Amino acid sequence: MFKMNSENKKITIKDIEIFESKHGLHLPQEYKAFLLEFNGGYPEKSNFIISDDEGISLVNKFYGIGEESGDLGETFEILDGEIPDGFISIADDPAGNEICIGTEKSEYKEKVYFWRHDMESDSEMDNMFLLAEDLKTFLNKLYGDNDE
């Protein structure tokens, strides 16, 4: 079972709608439910496998709406034009890489990817690594240092 440590203020569906309208995107339903429950924070189990070649990383923090530290909107604006179109970053790792989810109007809808910021790429998806088909699957794959 996924557990999150979050002191972020609770948000409403109206807050999400305002966010979507302001940034011109549609978040996946499952991610909206995640924001309504947690609005970002620190996962209790945070390690994940990127790929056999890339190894492992960990979630530093999931972004929330309206948070001073780790604001989803601010991160979206900073990374606009950096990460591929059709994605929004929902979390980061300690090395400054991003965990992204495909938005509703994207061919990658609901899929969770790892974006390596320091990797040279010929195409915009060369530095994107599929982590899970959806957010729930990704969250269930997170593990702690003591897990096998």
Automatic annotation (TrEMBL):
Domain Knr4/Smi1-like: residue ranges: 10-141
SMART domains: SMI1_KNR4
Top-rank taxon, per record: Bacteria
InterPro entries: Knr4/Smi1-like_dom, Knr4/Smi1-like_sf
Record protein name field: SMI1/KNR4 family protein
Organism: Listeria rustica
